[in-house]
Write a structure and sequence with these properties.
- By secondary structure, this protein is of the alpha+beta class.
- The protein is built from 15 helices and 17 strands.
- Strands 1, 2, 3, 4, 12, 15, 16 and 17 form an 8-stranded antiparallel β-sheet that branches. A 3-stranded antiparallel β-sheet has the order 5-7-6. It has a two-stranded antiparallel sheet with strand order 8-9.
- β2 and β3 form a beta hairpin.
- α3 (about 110-125) packs across α14.
- It is globular and about 60 Å long.
């Protein structure tokens, strides 16, 4: 009876079962900084919280990388990349282990990376962030959008948060001419330059359009030419080559179903119900497309290396890809205080590309005023924090809305807060 009840609860909560011994499901990468006893103890504390998150059954695969004082002190993965879905019968022959080398979709955390490419074009003199989008793409000025600036797109103040119907059709993504036309036909639905209204996908497409018109390269090529290759990253791309589709970790819908208000929200913000969006995210057409606000594919190791570059003023291991002033500009808040985001319905502090920390409760813990990074759906978080000399990349494959993770994920953030105090030398 207990087994039947437990199975029924698992099915209702859409959670996978975790074994008592997680060792066989754990992959450990290079952790040179963990040779220090303090760092080893801190990493053990954080990893215990990661294991607790995994045991909630909400994330079939988890990948984490932490860098402290410039060194990698934690690089591990847990679970499976593919073949574990609580809504399906488990087939051990089809289960693919998650490793530290498994590429994972950043979802909305992609925005921070794409934004830095636009900042780089500004650094190179290709554009000014205060330019109007219509100065570079005249057709974009249609329907009252002529005053929208590139800066406003980066800070979610452009007033065009919603995609037009049909624009997320996977076949449209591959048709640049058609998608550009739909983008230029966007309608303003929020005050331009006013309080932020989260641009879930529109902003990235607009920035890509600007990049092509000002530099001649799209954001995908800019990322390859200006960031991935110079920094020597093994995995960081907008979409993947067709040959690599099967390497990418599978996104899995977990957590309690039948959350109608949340589904309505995602349908409005992203143009499709959440379940359909997740199915699309695993489709080869999406994985090989370029969605600058939603499909940068990376490992936690390389996401952390990117943020280490930003934390160190634009350089990594002696290679400079951004001027220090460019990184500083990208981190500056665009609105005083912590305004209420009109689409998310939450207080959110934005720069031109990042979700910022603040005094009080933040995405990154309590009182993390100088943290800068970005959240991705749904327990995926990447950030850097100068006062702690800390970089964190937490990548997850489960996509729950409501479930037991709502306590475990904040505990993981709390463990990071306690393990790496500000000003620890």
């Amino acid at each position: 009876t207990g087994w039947v009840v437990g199975t029924a609860i698992d099915a209702w909560a859409r959670r996978h079962r975790a074994p008592d011994d997680l060792g066989p499901l754990t992959d450990v990468g290079a952790e040179p900084g963990a040779a220090d006893p303090f760092e080893a103890e801190a990493a053990a504390t954080v990893w215990a919280a990661v294991e607790d998150l995994y045991r909630t059954g909400m994330h079939p695969g988890i990948q984490v990388c932490v860098r402290h004082h410039g060194d990698v002190v934690l690089e591990r993965s847990l679970g499976h990349a593919r073949g574990v879905d609580p809504t399906k019968v488990f087939d051990p022959d089809g289960a693919v282990p998650m490793t530290v080398d498994t590429p994972v979709n950043l979802f909305s955390a992609s925005k921070a990376v794409s934004a830095m490419l636009i900042h780089l074009l500004a650094e190179r003199g290709r554009l000014s962030l205060d330019d109007r989008v219509g100065d570079h793409v005249p057709a974009f000025a249609r329907h009252g959008k002529g005053a929208i600036t590139i800066s406003q797109v980066l800070s979610h103040q452009a007033g065009v948060p919603l995609l037009p119907p049909g624009s997320l059709d996977l076949d449209v993504l591959a048709d640049t001419e058609r998608s550009d036309e739909m983008l230029c036909d966007l309608r303003v639905t929020a005050a331009i330059g006013g309080a932020p209204s989260y641009h879930a996908l529109t902003g990235g497409f607009v920035l890509d359009l600007v990049a092509r018109h000002t530099d001649g390269r799209d954001l995908r090529q800019l990322l390859e030419d200006e960031v991935r290759r110079p920094l020597g990253l093994s995995r960081m791309s907008l979409g993947v080559d067709p040959a690599d589709v099967d390497l990418v970790a599978e996104n899995v819908e977990t957590g309690f179903a039948f959350l109608l208000p949340l589904d309505v929200f995602f349908h409005r913000a992203l143009g499709a119900p959440w379940s359909r969006l997740l199915r699309m995210s695993n489709d080869p057409r999406f994985l090989t497309a370029s969605v600058p606000s939603g499909n940068i594919i990376v490992t936690a190791r390389d996401a952390a290396a990117f943020y280490q570059c930003l934390l160190d003023g634009g350089t990594l291991d002696g290679t400079r890809v951004f001027a220090a002033s460019t990184v500083e500009r990208a981190r500056e808040p665009r609105v005083e205080g912590t305004p209420f985001d009109r689409l998310l319905g939450l207080p959110m502090r934005y720069s031109e590309g990042f979700m910022l920390g603040a005094d009080g409760l933040t995405l990154y813990g309590w009182h993390h005023a100088d943290a800068f990074g970005h959240l991705g759906m749904s327990n995926l978080l990447t950030w850097a924090e100068p006062s702690r000399d800390l970089v964190v990349a937490i990548l997850t494959t489960g996509k729950p809305m409501i479930g037991p993770h709502v306590l475990a994920f904040p505990r993981l953030i709390g463990a990071l807060h306690d393990a790496y105090p500000a000003g620890d030398g």
